[in-house]
Amino acid sequence: xxxxxxxxxxxxxxxxxxxxxxxxxxxxxxxxxxxxxxxxxxxxxxxxxxxxxxxxxxxxxxxxxxxxxxxxxxxxxxxxxxxxxxxxxxxxx
Length: 93
Known about the structure:
Blueprint: H1 14-26, H2 44-47, H3 53-66, H4 75-88
Helix pairs in contact: 1-3
């Protein structure tokens, strides 16, 4: 398994904290509790982007925008698409 150096939220600077909080605000409420928590309680996949806060913000903002409730698809359709993309990419989350 690959090891990626990360910055725990307890050691984050203001830029990283703001990026993490902005990312959380875009996601559906069901995503509030991570399936694979990192040190400090955040999601491991989000924490893996902690060295580049701008990349974290843009990468996860994209997903948040794609899951927006005001889009023409229903939430379940968004979840089915996200699931199929993860399966295709052999991703566990």
